[in-house]
Specification:
Strand order of the largest sheet: 1-6-7-5-4-2-3
CATH class of the largest domain: Alpha Beta
Number of helices: 16
Order of helices and strands: EHEHEHEHHEHEHEHEHEHEHHEHHEHEH
Number of domains: 2
CATH superfamily of the largest domain: Thiamin diphosphate (ThDP)-binding fold, Pyr/PP domains
CATH architecture of the largest domain: 3-Layer(aba) Sandwich
Bound molecules: thiamine diphosphate
């Protein structure tokens, strides 16, 4: 275990991210440490760094309850409420989520919450990874005066117990950085279910095996083939600017015929639609499509209110609703099975809203959906792309410069 970053030198120049390395602590070792500390709830947003802890908690073999959220900014306030109610929660999130929840962290500090934060340390060691989240994780913790330890092996899991002691002593947050969580002998097929409508507070800790409540599930469970749906969009595209996100970043480039007007691979979950609003406002003469993820839109639901208020008439907001976080490891997110983006958009003031769950209907209906001259939401109910997905490419500064130059000429 390395304290306060002293171990980073070991990995200088390495792009190794330590996920599933044999020496990484297992999810059960982490859960055991949480049980020993008397933890009652883990308030968390799932991602591929901490997914195994999610899975372990979802098995119901621990009294600890998993409270999963749509946006990390929710985690600390929920934990603060649980603490006020006499419980003993921890929060868990990836380092991107730690950045996302900056003001909530400030709240934790200001309220002197003795809160342990488990933070997935994506990008640990830096190396060739163009994503800067690893580089800034420890400096940000230091700037916030939050003590931390890095748990990089089974033997260093004891840092979790120390974090509780430290949080109590200092009357403020203490962090545990997790560069990776190793296999836990968990059946890979087990995932927590999205439905927990009647059980957030009193139900069993396990969310797995809970069948979706019929009334909460969208009436239509029909889905389209992911690749075919985007192929259909591509065949109807003329000169629209296309901004893709998450799994669409891995599928759209396979079918796009105008890569010069594509912005692919924004490395900031849930913000592609906001980027699209900016592009649409900046170039009202050009049509802009954003191919959003459903988990991303659930995280940035307020963007629909912003879009409806500013109403960029040249923006078509597609949501590729595959009912999960596919790009990170197929985790469900809260209400993933039933969230009705069309209804939410209408409630925000969108006047043009379309939903497609059948390829023939998409082929027939898309021309109308994309030809209006008003802000439009198009929900595409799709199967996960799975093996159809191509490689992921990060959006780099040079891609943005290239796009800007190309756009300026038109
Ligand atoms: C603030 C933040 N929280 C969590 C993550 C980890 N993460 C990256 S993509 C993703 C899921 C994206 O799901 P969705 O938008 O539904 O896209 P899909 O891959 O299913 O198309 C998660 C949880 C992150 N990068 N940033």
């Amino acid at each position: 275990m390395k304290e306060n970053g002293s171990g980073l030198a070991n990995l200088a120049g390495s792009s190794k991210e330590f996920y599933e390395e044999p020496q990484a602590p297992t999810a059960w070792q982490i859960v055991d440490a949480l049980e020993q500390a008397g933890v009652t709830h883990v308030v968390s947003l799932a991602d591929n760094w901490t997914v195994r802890v999610h899975e372990a908690l979802a098995l119901g073999k621990t009294p600890i309850k998993l409270v999963h959220t749509c946006r990390e900014g929710e985690n600390i306030p929920i934990a603060a409420g649980l603490m006020a109610a006499g419980k003993n929660p921890v929060v868990m999130m990836q380092n991107s989520g730690f950045f996302e929840s900056g003001d909530s962290t400030r709240l934790g500090i200001q309220l002197c919450l003795p809160l342990v934060m488990l933070i997935g340390y994506r990008g640990w060691g830096g190396g060739g990874n163009p994503n800067v989240r690893g580089r800034f994780t420890e400096p940000v913790l230091r700037a916030l005066d939050i003590p931390y330890e890095i748990v990089d092996s089974a033997t260093s899991v004891s840092a979790i117990g120390r974090a509780f002691k430290r949080a109590q002593e200092r009357r403020g947050p203490a962090a545990v950085l997790l560069p990776g969580v190793g296999p836990a002998g968990i059946d890979a097929g087990i995932r927590l279910r999205a439905d927990h409508s009647e059980e957030v507070f009193d139900g069993p800790a396990s969310l797995s095996g809970v069948q979706p409540v019929a009334s909460r599930v969208s009436a239509s469970k029909a889905r389209m083939d992911y690749l075919q749906s985007l192929r259909c969009l591509s065949s109807h595209r003329t000169d629209q600017i296309v901004i893709s996100h998450e799994t669409a970043d891995r599928v759209w480039p396979l079918v796009s015929k105008r890569a010069d007007f594509d912005l692919v691979g924004l490395p900031c979950m849930s913000k592609a639609c906001s980027l699209a609003v900016g592009v649409a406002m900046g170039r009202p003469d050009r049509k802009v499509w954003v191919l959003d993820g459903d988990g991303s839109l659930a995280m940035n639901l307020g963007s629909l209110a912003t879009e409806a208020d500013w109403r960029p008439r040249n923006l078509v907001h597609f949501v590729c609703q595959n009912f999960e976080y596919e790009i990170t490891a197929d985790q469900p997110f809260p209400s993933a099975d039933c969230i009705d983006f069309a209804m939410i958009a209408r409630g925000c003031g969108f006047r043009r809203v379309f939903t497609f769950d059948d390829l023939d209907e998409l082929e027939r209906g898309l021309p109308e959906a994309i030809s209006g001259s008003d802000l439009t939401l198009v929900v595409l109910k799709v199967m996960p792309a799975g093996a159809q997905a191509g490689p992921y490419r990060y959006l780099l500064p040079e891609h943005v410069q290239q796009f800007r130059a190309t756009l300026a000429k038109t």
